[in-house]
Design goal:
Blueprint (H helix, E strand, L loop, with lengths): L12 E9 L1 H5 L5 H15 L7 E8 L5 E7 L2 H13 L6 E11 L8 H10 L9 H22 L8 E9 L1 E2 L2 E2 L5 H16 L5 E7 L8 E7 L2 H11 L3 H4 L2 E3 L3 E5 L2 H8 L2
Antiparallel strand pairs: 1-3, 1-4, 2-3, 2-11, 4-8, 5-9, 5-10, 5-11, 6-7, 8-9
């Protein structure tokens, strides 16, 4: 009996998987099995090529923590689980060792800009337009359109297919005076606005996806950074550390750096 459709009230499911190849077992595979495995994974990646969910992206791990990374996007939970099994079953039994996985969902930040926020910015910002005027209404309509698009793609991401993917988990501290959840909402919103401002400096160099994982995995958020160059990843994370949000309240998990490679190139890169 098939599972019923299990969807979120908004957003989609995201799964990061990181594997190590058992080279001894791989070397003992029958002739042609490596190529057959590559073809099965390639067919799966092409079946779910994106840019929107359902999507399967394959990566080569850099640094020794993992050989292969896979990022799966799916609107339904049972679909995500089925796609995970398809990835695993594309490989011969025992040839892959799962070294890390992370389950999360896309979500709107608690501090997302509201219509009232937009109106205040238009009225008290650089142009200081007055409510009720055609100029104010035009500026508000344009700002609302941008904000609605931001919210849509935050929930339904179409990440750029750039060369590098960095993933790590992140939580907010609950240590005595540095307890994020004891701050009032306005204080948290102000701090996050400064944090976001730092991130916007890297537009065109970094594309990021912040996914929620409270109650799903060991951290509260998963952070996926897509970049052309590794120094952009290093720079954004370094700069973010000077924001009070990170410097005072941030806790971070292990970092996984990956190269975006389709299965054919992945096989050549890993010499499989």
């Amino acid at each position: 009996m098939p599972l019923p459709s299990i969807k979120l009230s908004q957003g989609i499911h995201i799964l990061h998987l990181f594997f190590r190849v058992d080279r001894v077992r791989w070397a003992a595979l029958p002739a042609g099995e490596s190529a057959a495995t590559r073809d099965r994974l390639d067919a799966l990646a092409k079946k779910h090529a994106g840019p929107a969910a359902p999507r399967v992206c394959t990566y080569a791990g850099v640094g020794g923590k993992a050989d292969i990374g896979v990022m799966i996007y799916a609107p339904e939970l049972q679909q995500l689980s089925a796609m995970q099994r398809e990835v695993e079953l594309a490989f011969p039994a025992g040839a892959l060792q799962l070294v890390y996985s992370y389950l999360s969902v896309t979500e709107l930040p608690e501090y997302v800009t509201t219509d009232d926020d937009l109106k205040r910015m238009i009225q008290h910002g650089e142009r200081k337009l007055q409510p009720g005027t055609p100029e104010f209404d035009e500026a508000f309509a344009a700002a609302k359109k941008r904000n609605d698009e931001y919210k849509f793609y935050r929930l339904n991401p179409e990440l750029e297919d750039w060369e590098i993917m960095c993933f790590y988990g992140m939580s907010k501290k609950r240590d005595l005076a540095d307890n994020w959840y004891m701050l009032d909402f306005d204080a948290r919103k102000k701090l996050m606005a400064s944090h976001a401002k730092t991130g916007r400096k890297f537009a065109g160099r970094i594309s990021q996806l912040i996914t929620g994982s409270t109650g799903m995995d060991e951290y509260e958020w998963g952070v996926t950074l897509i970049a052309h160059q590794l120094d952009a990843v290093k720079e954004i994370i370094y700069e973010m550390r000077f924001d009070e949000v990170s410097a005072r309240f941030g806790e971070f998990g292990p970092f996984y750096i990956n190269l975006r490679l389709q299965p054919g190139d992945l096989w050549e890169h890993l010499r499989l």
